[in-house]
Design a protein that fits this description.
With 170 residues, the protein is of the alpha+beta class. The chain has six helices and five strands, in the order H-H-E-H-E-H-E-H-E-E-H. The protein is 41% helix and 15% strand. It has one domain. It has a five-stranded mixed sheet. The model has no long low-confidence stretch (mean pLDDT 87).
Length: 170
């Protein structure tokens, strides 16, 4: 098939419009927002990685809490912890709060996060149920520079609409 300049311009316009639409509806810069807000709060640290994360999850497991590594983004950890040391991790668990960060980059999100559309995964909900007050959700609006530290039950009490989804991997 041969494309004319007009056809190519139309295709490029369609691609441009689709990208604008996706940018408006999606949140592709969430990890940037996560790092930004973590860097601002002195007691927050990024979720450990590799062996340090395995040690943390194993020590949590010993307390009866079985969560997935994807169920939180940061930890509010008021004391310095060596995550390579299981005993030190175990001793620090009572002072840790696990934080899931949801970042808003859209202009349509209003004050107090009205109009903010985001997903809560089964792993995040499970972590919140098991950790109770030791699990928080940080809603961060990068455009308005607004942060709200809340919980999944508080979020569910504010919900205006909800759509359930099943994610699968083949």
């Amino acid at each position: 098939m041969r494309y004319t300049m007009e056809t190519c311009k139309n295709l490029l316009e369609i691609i441009k419009l689709k990208n604008i639409h996706l940018e408006r509806l999606s949140n592709t810069k969430g990890s940037v927002g996560e790092r930004e807000i973590i860097s601002r709060i002195e007691s927050w640290i990024e979720r450990p990685k590799g062996n340090e994360l395995r040690i943390l999850l194993k020590e949590l497991s010993k307390t009866g809490v079985e969560i997935k590594k994807s169920s939180f983004d940061a930890i509010d950890c008021p004391k310095l912890v060596d995550f390579k040391n299981p005993e030190e991790v175990q001793a620090a668990l009572r002072d840790m709060t696990f934080i899931e960060i949801k970042t808003a980059n859209q202009k349509r999100v209003k004050e107090n996060f009205e109009g903010f559309f985001f997903a809560l995964t089964g792993s995040e909900i499970s972590a919140a149920e098991q950790l109770g007050s030791k699990h928080k959700v940080a809603l961060f609006n990068r455009i308005k520079d607004e942060l709200l530290l809340t919980s999944i039950p508080e979020i569910l009490a504010r919900v205006k609409s909800m759509t359930w989804q099943l994610s699968v991997q083949l």
